[in-house]
Structure formats: C-alpha cells, structure tokens
Amino acid sequence: MPGSPRLFSLCRELSRRHELHLATRCSSQERHQWFLSDPGTRQVFKSLTILPNPPSSTTWWRRQRHRFHRGAYFETEYLYPEYYRLIRDTIHSLASEKQADILYVDGLATSQYVESTSARPAVLDIHDSWTLLLTRSMKAQKSKRLARHLEAWEAGRKERSLAQNFSLVITNSPIDESVIKSLAPSVKTLTIGNGVDTEFFRSNGGAVQWTKLVFTGVLEYGPNEDAVVYFCESILPSIRERVPEIEFWVVGSAPTAKVQSLAQLPGVHVTGSVPDVRPYLESAGLFVCPLRFGSGVKNKILAALAMGKPVVATRVSLDGLDLREDHDLLVADNSASFADQVIRLLNDRRLAEELGRTGQRSVKQRYSWQGSGHVLDEALHTLVRSTTSTTARQSFIRRSAGES
What we know:
The chain is built from 16 helices and twelve strands. By secondary structure, the protein is an alpha/beta fold.
C-alpha cells in the first residue's frame, strides 16, 4: 500500500543511489491523489503504476477450487484467475520495460505474483512472519481458534515455499527470521530492522496533558484491535479508579465496529484516521502499548520514544527492539501490573521525564532509517553481483559448448 512507513523509508534511502519504479494497489482514489501530490513520492519514485484491486466476487466453482488447493485468503490464482494473470503479467512487463535489475516485493500477499529468474532476482520483504503472528493470536484469543489454526497452516505452507521463488527473504526482527528459517531452511534470509525518522518525529515543545494516554496504529489489524479492547476492558477501569480524570485516546485509521464502540466508555476517545499523529503524541502524558500478540518491530513505540514520550508496553511489543526495561521504558505483562506501571509514572513525573529522555537517546542511536537503508543497499548489491556473475558463467558455458 502507498504510505507504508517501512517501505517508503527504505525506498527513500535507496533512491539516493538508485532509480526506483513503484507498482502498487491503492485503497481509494483519494489516497491515490494524496500519494501522487506528496512531494516526497516524486523524489523517491521515478514512476508510479497503480494496479487494480481484485474483483469483489467470484463463482462457486472457483471457491471450491481455491479450497481444494488450500489457498490462503489473500491468494487470487484460483479465486480470480484472470486478475491473477493480469497482475503477474503487468509486473513482469514493467520490470522488462524499466530494465529492472531486481524486483523488490513488499509483503507476503504480493509474493504470489513474482518469482526470481536467472536474469532478475526477486527479494521479498515479508516484514513479520504470519505463522508466528497467527500462532500467537491463537494463544492470546480463545475464540475462533479453528479458523486461526487453518489460517496459520495456510500461512506456514506459503512461508515454506518462499525459497522456490525468492533469492532473499527479509524480515524486520531476528525472531521472525528464525521462524522463516525453521519453515524454509534453504531460503536465504536477512533481518533489517525498522527505523524511525527522528527529524519528523521530534517534539516541538508543545503543552503536555499528563493525564492523557495515547495508543496509535491501524485499528483493523487484529493485534491492535485486541490491544485497545483489552486496555479499555481490563486495564483502564483500574487506572480511572485511582485517577478519575484519565483519558485514553485511540488514534489510527480503519477502526473496527468493536473499536468504535469503545468511545462510549468514560474517558475513551476514538479518532479514526488523522492526517498527522504527531500532535496526539506531542500532547500525551504517556504512550501505552498493551499488545498481547503480534510479531515484528513496532514502529509506534519507536515514534513515541523519538518524541520523548514515556512508554509502558508489554514484552511482546518489544520483539526485535534493543530497549532496556526500567531504563528506556516500563514493561508489564498482565492487566494489574500494567495499570500499576501507568499509575507509577503518573505519580512520579521526574521518572516519566527521565524515561522519555533515555528512550529518545536510545532510538536516535540505534534506529535510524539511514542505517537500515545502508544494510539493504549492501544486500541488494551483493545479490546483483552474484546474479551477474552466475549469468556470465552460464553464458561462457553455452559459448564453450557451441565451440566444441
């Protein structure tokens, strides 16, 4: 999707030395126009191709074929075969037209349309392991376990096959990389952690409302939805018993009906999509991240720390992050201790401010997109050199065979 912070930030670093062409689906015409009008887009991408969204319906026979082949919900080969071929062929044609050296694929759902060739390697940035995410989801949520078990099986099948189509698979944390390696031992993998734009996420010294707690994220994403519901139902009441004026702000796009209903609770605000999350972070006393499952590195925590906000988070929220408990942020893994840690910071403003400063320093030292972009650039250069060398050897062998 246009606007993915990780994809855009890594591409911005690559664009300093390379020519990039983007092919992407877009959720709406409004978002498309916003993306096109953004000056940063024109600086990063030489061209932009909008791919159509899949059809909204299919036939009964195609659904049965999809089930027979154990297709994941995002796979289109059997549900919408004409659409599948259109996207696959469009990407192939664009790569040839632009004389691309590498196909860089963002996300597991997009991987179905691309495969490596001897002349043009394909790299997949899987972000998080879906197998890990869904397995953790089953443990954290008791409902719909059978459906999640089937989804985890389908994701595992897809992740086991990655070595067949990709020369390199990138994850954003060592934990996710180890899961991919366990599923597909022969696949070449690399961890490139998320970063944060510390110039963009920088406090302007605005007024802080100390009794304002904030959470940010895309709210249709299962772990985020679960986190805010869990916080409102199991943590917030205990906090409000001791500090009645506390407000909890849920900031992010695509809030589900369940999330929207939380706004009926005392002190809870659900904003929906906002043009800029920084004013909400700026005015917050604390940032809370009560995720109970998920995978990958949480950009929301990096952004909050970059703005000097004290953070209370669960341990699963810190996967892949080199942050120190009680030094950069506070950690709690059950509802009672989470509420206690929030109250602790509300009662000790000096500690809260100190955590904000040390967390901010740690993020600036360890989580720059410039560093992540450099690692990716080196990996892509190595892959191109390897492919060019292999192609040259094959060409030499063919010529030698012809001469004999």
